[in-house]
């Protein structure tokens, strides 16, 4: 598994600054959202509570409320300005609740969620045991987790262009589908199904891609990134290297998108422990022992 570490404060700051511009650049996010909604066809019940983790500006939350009009839909995001923007998608006919919180510490009771949805948020979390452990904690037995995230081929052209001029970290790194699947199983999630799709977006020039990343808040947030200003010579060199990748007059950018779903485990199902072995948990009420008199 990759040893990268995310600067969570930087992520929160980046997305807070991008709240006003996000929806000018979110064409890919909307396309991936449709892939996630298709997975909801596997969920055959009527949910009582649906949460949208990393809800951003609330487009996905509104679609979930439209699909499940009788359910309580909760939009959760760590960036408060995003949630303020999301208010525009919450109509009085189809309202949803907005809550500021982290994916690894959801402000919800145990086993209280029927559907946990997250569109292109989990790539900003490096502690997968904490992330999927929290999903298991809040999901009801048989509840559905569905999410999308970016895979390691994402922005490979931009990464290669930077590598042509120096060896510093300039582009975020993302986990492989197999690492995600292993972490889901270890956490106790049932029957995970993961798929990979690759999208290639094109731009008039490399700077247009960089403007889009900034407008989305999706800029570099690894702790290992260079903290000083990038020299003009290095920046020009990166642009020149990227220009050499033009195809049919356009600059390509690859996005590897992992979509997945799984199910909340039944009470008492064991999960792998960090040091080896397995752990199973039961509610006190389920233990009907006898005692000697």
Automatic annotation (TrEMBL):
Superkingdom of the organism of origin: Bacteria
Primary gene name: bioC_1
Phylogenetic classification of the source organism: Bacteria, Pseudomonadati, Pseudomonadota, Gammaproteobacteria, Lysobacterales
Protein name as it appears in the record: Malonyl-[acyl-carrier protein] O-methyltransferase
EC number: 2.1.1.197
Family stated for the protein in its record: Belongs to the methyltransferase superfamily.
Pfam families for the chain: Methyltransf_11
Keywords: Biotin biosynthesis, Methyltransferase, S-adenosyl-L-methionine, Transferase
UniProt domain Methyltransferase type: residue ranges: 51-147
Organism: Dyella acidisoli
